[in-house]
Amino acid sequence: MKTLRRILRDRALVAGLVIISLLVLAAVFAGTLATFPGDVTGFDPGARLEPPGPVYYLGTDRMGADLYSRLLFGARLTIMVAVLATAVAVLIGVPMGLVAGYHRGWFSDLLMRVSDVFLAIPQIVLAIAIAQTLGPAIQNVILALSATYWPFWARLVYAETRSQRNETYVEAAVAMGASPFRVMVLHILPNIASSIIVRTTIGMGGTILAAAALGFLGLGAPPPAPEWGRMIAESREYLPQAWWYATAPGIAILLVVIGFNLLGDGLRDVLDPRIRRGADGN
Amino acid sequence: MGTDLLRVEELSVTFGTEGGVAQVLDQVSLSLQLGEIMGLVGESGCGKTTLARAILGVLPANATIRQGRIIFGGEDLLALTPEEAGSRIRGRAMTFVPQDPVGSFSPLFTIGDQIAELMRWKSPDREADTRAYSRSRRRSDLARTLAMLRAVQLPDPPQLLRRYPHELSGGQRQRVMIAMALLPEPKLVIADEPTTALDVTIQAQILKLLRTLATESGASVLFTTHDLGTAWEICDRITVMYAGQEAETAGVAPFFERPAHPYTRLLLDSLPTGRTSLQGIPGSVPSPFAPPPGCRFNPRCPRATGVCAEVHPAEAEIGPGHAIRCHHPLLAAS
Amino acid sequence: MNAPPILVLNDLRRHFAIRNAWGVRTAWLRAVDGIDLEIGRGEILGVVGESGCGKSTLGKTIAGIQRPSGGSIRFEEHEIGNLSPSAGRALRSRLQYCYQDPGASLDPRWTIGRSLEEPLVIHTRLSHRERTARVHQVLEAVGLPLRHLALYPHEISGGQQRRVGLARVLMLRPSLVILDEPTSGLDVSVQATVLNLFATLREAFALTYMFISHDLSVVRMFSHRIAVMYLGRVVEIGETEQVFTDPRHPYTQSLLAAVPTIGGRRVTESSLLEGEPPSPGRLPSGCRFHPRCPHATTHCVSVDPALMPLPGDRRAACHYADNRVIVPGVPASPPAPPPSRQAGQQPP
User: Which residues of B touch A281 (CB under 8 A)?
Assistant: First the structure.
């Protein structure tokens, strides 16, 4: 109850929550919400580059497809890429960070140096290289993104685990005879979960942006998939006469990235036990 | 007895928090004479630190003074503007020794830098100084500082000025804190649990030092502590507080020999003094958000009657300098 | 005391390497440096000393939280000092360490019930129902209501956290419990009830306590025997009242003189131990106490005194322990009992 009140009081969190819920709803009900579901793959040469209006809410593209309907179906793609790429990155990064942070030694040093190498190269450059090598396909985008993003989680979890390792409750659990696995999974992981959740939420925004960039460069899902980044790329030539063409997917990307960032920031405030304790006036 | 240097009259302070309004001080009165060391004793949550901070004028932002007056050297501190209190009183006529000397130093500056900054604003010679910070005052301030560091028995003061806080031990840092508190030649030093973080041998050294220097300089000391043994060591008079109310004030000897308030008696009985079984105080300290009406000790008090839960007892003088707030004091029985 | 001691320490050491910025060892910090000690079954041994004397490290080394650098630990006739953590675990379930701050030693995201059950999950094959029964039984023994099981550590008071810490330690039915500063940070009225609880539980569970504390008055009230530590060594050990009334080591004398005694002589009016203990990383030559000792001789500067037996089952590590040494300010005869003390407790 108290948590709910605290969430509602945080405007950033509420705004983020609303945006992300809308995105999810759009993706789930794309079939019913879309006014021209057929336009996602098909086209209508008679209605090329129509401006926004009562028939085509957000106008049409160069093939005459309804942008509003394409954006809705694009939301599915966006969520799929963001969730899968982030999930793979989390699944690689979190266990690595936990093990490296818990057992100190040459192996943990090695793990961390490898993640340093990944972090030293700009993420998007690395992702472009990987996606380019693998060829344009949605699963390759996911692979490229998770392969470049896992070190963020590894780093975070490593640092958090190392600080938890020095906490008395961890020492007490070890002294009591709990196995390293037990200590890592049952004690340390729940205590650092809030940082992971916050990082993951903000990371989703970054993943979406990077996926859009790959799509823009033609490395994403092949046409006619309604991928937001690719839609912007297609609109480039028509920018002077059809402002809505680039604007609609651009604003969609902007909103979703802002939404994830607001949600992440808001969750940080709600989940961070230090801030929470302070607010209770102890 | 001398004149009152400090008089706190019926002071009530509340804290506004997320969980409600905490009534931290409830009509607390206190007086402190010139040159006297007064102990403010009580368990955690009794309000002794809040009282010390109210006198210093450094209450947290969510605190509200509901009523009362704080008279220091004849003037009402609560009626002063913050600027006046900051320039004339705080750090000058009234100084502070904290519990944790580590947090009170900036780790980035040497001890010398930090004392110099203090002396620039709070040196007793400042009023006479016509220029911003004249060369002659710098010289006299440095001489004062070195003399004071010698007085707190720190080895090699000139060398010490060049060291950083982390290079000193806990005891040495507390000595520097005491030196800094005494350098402005204050009338009142407020020491908040200054020896709690120290080992017993170091504590004894610091207590002795504080007592000697306070006596020499003629300053009064308000000494808050949760440790009755420490209070016995250093104080002339003791006020014991419970849950935001003062319970009993007495000279050290009558306080320990003839306590009249049931809470004082029970507190003394809780001390491990060699008996085989100890007597704690049943129950726990009430929440400041919903304190019991009347005397706040009444739910735990073995002598409580109906009146205790209705009327906050008035202060009654039961001997010279011995005052209590209790409807059923123990002395009347014996 | 014919039964074999429950715990025997022989020349126990725990050294930590001090390394510089490049990870090169520059010195050894001798936190525990050659301790010989015995604790009899059912006894309460108080271990006192100032911060940095190694008393906490001693407790943690015995409990297996720190690995000894040398020497032996025999617990219930088994050598446990050189065992690997996994091999020692079964033996050590009967030797438990109770943390100084039980609030911090409990997982903040676990309910108290889950924290209490955890040792049983790790060490026993009890069923869920049996575990719950044992948790309830122990919780009742430490005087906490059952509804506390659903609470989180930060939702209960400091005194209650001590009880939970103790309850967790008792889950495995230990025979020896190492209590590390079990009353520090508690108000006196709470401290009294916690100490009473320790006494009750010792009877109920047939426990032996090693009671580590810096609070000499608590140790005096609570322990049968007392060991005084200084810079990683035991400098004096003996029956509590004997040590308190007739301390033989100059350090013990100074330490006792510094304790405020209500109704006694004010410490501020007597002369005191000067200076502060040196770092355990840079130990003085000869007797470790000689730089601060008011009676140090040239012999003390060069020769490190052993813990020598004295009459009455006492030992002290001072060359002059059997000569009566009088520190100025320490009364030669036992101090007059304070008014509230009962004289019957005084030893003959």
Answer: 15, 17-19, 22, 62
CB-CB under 8 Å, B199 with C217: no
A243-271 helix and A67-102 helix, angle to the nearest 10 degrees: 30
ipTM, interface predicted TM-score of the complex: 0.82
Asked if residues C164 and C115 have their Cβ atoms less than 8 Å apart, the reply is yes
Predicted confidence band of residue C325 (pLDDT cuts 50, 70, 90): very low
Residues of C within 8 A of A175 (CB-CB) are 63-65, 97
Q: What is the number of H-type helices and E-type strands within chain B?
A: 11, 12
Question: Are C163 and C143 contacting, i.e. CB atoms less than 8 angstroms apart?
Answer: yes
CB contact under 8 A, C107 and A171: no
Residues of chain A contacting residue B17, judged by C-beta atoms under 8 Å apart: 280-281
pLDDT digit string, tens, across residues B233-263: 899 999 999 999 999 999 999 999 899 999 9
- Over range B271-278, report the average pLDDT: 69
| Cα gap B153→B172, rounded to integer Å | 9
Compute the distance between CA of residue A252 and CA of residue A230 in angstroms, rounded to an integer: 13
CB contact under 8 A, C118 and A178: yes
pLDDT, tens only, B294-333: 999 999 999 999 999 999 999 898 888 899 999 999 875 4
Q: Are C149 and C139 in contact (CB under 8 A)?
A: yes
Q: Which chains touch B (3 or more CB pairs under 8 A)?
A: A, C
Of C51, C263, C266, the CB nearest to B256: C263
List the 186-205 stretch of A: residues with Cβ below 8 A of C: 187, 190-191
Give the distance from CA C24 to its chain's centroid. Answer: 33
- Indicate the pLDDT class of residue C112, thresholds 50, 70 and 90: very high
Query: What single string gives the DSSP state of each residue in C242-283?
Result: HHHHS--SHHHHHHHHHS--TTS--GGGS----S-PPPTTSP
pLDDT tens-digit readout, C35-63:
999 999 999 999 999 888 899 999 999 98
- Residues C278-287 as b/e (b if ≥16 CB within 10 A, e otherwise) read eebeebbebb
CA of C85, closest CA in chain A: separation in Å? 8
For residue A224, whether the previous peptide bond is cis, meaning omega lies within 30 degrees of 0, is: yes
Which range is least confidently modeled, A79-93, B165-179, B320-334?
A: B320-334
Cβ–Cβ gap B43/C340 under 8 Å: no
Cα separation of B270 and C188, whole Å? 6
- Mean pLDDT, all residues of chain C: 84
Q: Do C262 and B200 touch (CB under 8 A)?
A: no
Smallest CA–CA distance, residue C122 to chain A, in Å, is 6
Q: How far apart are CA C155 and CA C109, in angstroms?
A: 11
Residue C346 has pLDDT above 70, yes or no: no
Question: Tokens 């030693």 belong to which residue?
Answer: C105
Which residue of A lies nearest to C115 if distances are taken between CA atoms? A173
For testing the chain A interface, which of C107, C114, C180 should be mutated: the one with the most A CBs within 10 Å?
C107
A281 touches chain C (CB under 8 A): no
